[in-house]
């Protein structure tokens, strides 16, 4: 129902294994706007030295593929660009900044490029753009610019991948999307198209409205005066959105070298605080060069550095390593059914021993995730105790224990389920059939095979005969093809990982109609609990938090999926940088950044 | 000769057609498609399905092929699914990078290999000759990527003499500063490629010179009292260069082929790196266009080599 409540840059990735384990992670405080720690990493690097006036900051994003320059939010569909566009959109350094400010709990706050207010009785929202909000060509940002963002996403001619069913909650938007209407009836301009106010008419109120990134309304503007004459199907490749875009953030792209780098300079029309830095050079760095580059002081900041090089990076003397909890969860999925394309619903009908929840629970208890994360996680991952990560401190159930290793309990569950050991006490059998399972483990990094074999050994301890899908690890594309197919594949267990939206509802992942519910499990109880979370009947935060906890407890008991790990993002920052903050609620992060010397510190 | 050239060009058409068909089928057989990577809770699966349908990926393969080949015949290679740009624009922009890098590497390779071969041959059996033979054996045997990594580590990171990625710094403006900056970015990969690329030219030329030195016409020239320098430059070298010339057609077309390893390790976005990116992203339109381009260049290279040989060696005529 509420598609699209998730941040960009989402990939279904194999479980990022590793761990070091922050046992106290789930209970740590989240007040990181003014400092704070995630595990043993500081969220900020302030620097005591005096900030120099001007200066250029060299930022790199770790990626082995050239980025595709795209500044139009509705057409931006990769994580690299979302991060690399951040100086031009404003907001936190974590990317994805929009027109609304947010706090560390992703609640929309006043004071951004626009404010939003809701009228619950009328089921409307009024978006008010700042009077002094201008494009980087000096033209004012108008109400039409906000509406035009919807046109780009909803009109199939633009080829946007960002249309989601959540947006259909705005009156008339799905008709516009389907070509049945020429304009969007639910978006009106109280002060005219050139004004600063936009009224959105919703079909129903949603508790997720309060969160940024909720997917029910857009949080970007598109320069109508600049783009209106571009043919829709050519907009994605037009220089006006790729190499010569208009932006509203503290920096504007001065020069873009296709696929390589973006050179930002101050946007003189930016309404907010004038940046300390004169310019920012944002480039991509190949994963194989990350450590050497940081060591040589080639970059001041490296975003998305691989967890595998963290042990090397943390030893470098010229950088401070900062950290932040990731909006991320990895899990073990069970294949329990198929997706019926006619009814657009998941059907839990697969004949498998895993239909018995005791078997699923036993599989969960047999895994030694704590040990694996400790050995391979480099201190950046921990076993997940529930499906809602602790970054959502109001909603994550810290009391749940999840599935720590407990072979005794796992054996007991299988005994109860009627799976008896064979004569050799090698494997378990029921009705003459051995407990055979196929594990589709993904090839994601150098440790993938070791981890997969470790789990297979663990499962053998409880008498489950688990073999790898086709006898080997599965590559990313094959994995996607199989797991997203409506048919039930020839696998029983697999790893999955999701980046999460800043609204924690998991309707998109696990509802009866969710195509991303790759295990195809469903139950009336689950539907009820998921619907409750996004229901318009929710009166306040407390009630929603209860609904989340009720849902987590149910999912923990039913073990339709077993949470595997939470992760920490880390970012190495050169010691000449000042005011670096990874806080999600730091809305002026790019303006505050500065450097304290002309040359980067070298190791 | 013109008839032969036209005939050869005409033969290329069915050859390229078969190649394109094979490439298209092989690309389609790879698991996943360009929209697989879009999967994520930020994108509605229905929207991905709609984009897939709009791109014609649900049509039978032969329909997709006919559609693609008929557009290609009109010069439209389609859109890159992942980079959202016309394939011709994308390839064009990368081709420029690859061409200049390859050209510089080629010039440096010849500038190194020819003097090496001449001096080795003229001092056959000497210590210098042995050193050069060993050098060329080592550079031929050692995996290129190992040297690329070593050079980028030493000259890029440790000594900081050269950039470690990209084609140009984004904060450089003006024609000449940009040109100089671009050359600066090319030097390290080009020199490294040249240092590793001398073996073929060195070996052909050295053995060619040694062979020619023993020919009767050389002895005759010497007997006639022609100066040694004249004998070498006008008789020996000229004939010894023929195998090099024969290969020159492939070298010219190879300038646009792209150096996959070098471009990937040096972070130089040319056609080689584009090819790797396209394969991992299942960007069918780019994959097929690039393989077709390489196929065309290989055929053209063979033709050019024959033509060059016919021009430089009067004994050879294309009939």
Keywords for this structure?
heterodimer, A: 603 residues, alpha+beta, seven-stranded mixed beta sheet, five-stranded mixed beta sheet, 17 helices, 22% helix, globular, disordered N terminus, B: 319 residues, mainly alpha, 14 helices
Q: How would you describe what is shown here?
A:
The complex is a heterodimer of chains A (603) and B (319). In chain A, helix 9 (357-366) runs antiparallel to helix 11 (407-416) and helix 15 packs antiparallel against helix 16 (541-558). Helices cover 22% and strands 21% of the residues of chain A. Chain A contains 17 helices and 29 strands. The N and C termini of chain A lie far apart (51 Å). Chain B is mainly alpha-helical and 319 residues long. Helices cover 73% and strands 0% of the residues of chain B. Chain B contains 14 helices and no strands. The radius of gyration of chain B is 24 Å and the shape is globular. Chains A and B meet through strand 11, strand 12, strand 13, helix 7 and helix 13 of A and helix 2, helix 6 and helix 13 of B.
